[in-house]
């Protein structure tokens, strides 16, 4: 049992593991580890070889089984973070739920509602406000709400920030991010460089 009793589960829903997801998962692992929570990456295909960086991430447990099998006897303790849920997550939900479940999918614009793959399993659902977040942001916000007991609408956010990708070009990220102490959107280490690199190939292909 982790120090604060909370487990954050990302159910990996893609057959492959994109570099974007890999950076997001590394960042979730590091932050969960630092805050005494547990991070479980579930439903990882046996054929998928995780990059070295993720294999060595402290605080990350990897499971080939899916959420339904792992927590078959604790379904009522699982909360799915779902952009389509009718109720927003509240600090009191930290007293009700022990396991917080997220879709391990890259965001898309417009959103394709792939979280529905988890919704149809029948878990209690909570929303993190009306704007789509990246998976690492969704986990970060959930930790702030249930561990630090900050109301979801009191967290400082920036929506759809512009990122300068070259001297003359910038790209708009179609997500909501938490604002860090430096006033910038919090993104996983290496993400800005990856975005710059990928923008040369066309960001549209990746979303
Ligand atoms: N467009 C995506 C979809 O198809 O559902 C959203 C995916 S989002 C990048 C990855 C995960 O973060 C979602 O499956 C959900 O668990 C969580 N998430 C992101 N934004 C959220 C929000 N506003 N409310 C609740 N959960 C959210």
UniProtKB/TrEMBL annotation:
What UniProt keywords are attached to this protein's entry?
A: Methyltransferase, Transferase
Pfam families, alphabetized: SFM1-like (PF04252)
Task: Specify whether Methyltransferase is a keyword of the entry.
Answer: yes
Q: Name one GO molecular function term.
A: protein-arginine omega-N monomethyltransferase activity
* Signal peptide limits: none
GO terms for biological process, alphabetical: methylation
- Whether Methyltransferase counts among this entry's keywords is yes
The name on file for this protein is SAM-dependent RNA methyltransferase
Protein species of origin: Clohesyomyces aquaticus
The major lineage groups are: Eukaryota, Fungi, Dikarya, Ascomycota, Pezizomycotina
């Amino acid at each position: 049992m982790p120090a604060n009793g909370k487990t954050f589960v990302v159910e990996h829903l893609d057959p492959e593991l994109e570099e974007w997801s890999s950076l997001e998962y590394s960042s979730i692992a590091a932050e969960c580890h630092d805050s005494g929570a547990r991070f479980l990456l579930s439903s990882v295909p046996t054929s998928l070889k995780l990059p070295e960086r993720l294999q060595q991430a402290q605080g990350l447990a990897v499971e080939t089984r899916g959420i339904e099998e792992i927590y078959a006897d604790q379904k009522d303790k699982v909360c799915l973070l779902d952009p389509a849920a009718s109720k927003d997550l509240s600090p009191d939900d930290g007293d009700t739920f022990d396991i917080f479940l997220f879709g391990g999918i890259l965001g898309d614009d417009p959103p394709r509602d792939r979280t529905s793959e988890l919704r149809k399993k029948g878990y209690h659902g909570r929303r993190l406000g009306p704007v789509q977040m990246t998976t690492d942001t969704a986990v970060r916000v959930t930790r702030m709400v249930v561990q630090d007991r900050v109301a979801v609408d009191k967290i400082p956010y920036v929506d759809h920030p512009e990122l300068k990708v070259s001297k003359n070009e910038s790209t708009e990220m179609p997500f909501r991010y938490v604002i860090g102490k430096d006033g910038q959107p919090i993104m996983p280490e290496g993400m800005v460089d990856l975005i710059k690199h990928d923008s040369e190939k066309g960001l549209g292909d990746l979303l």
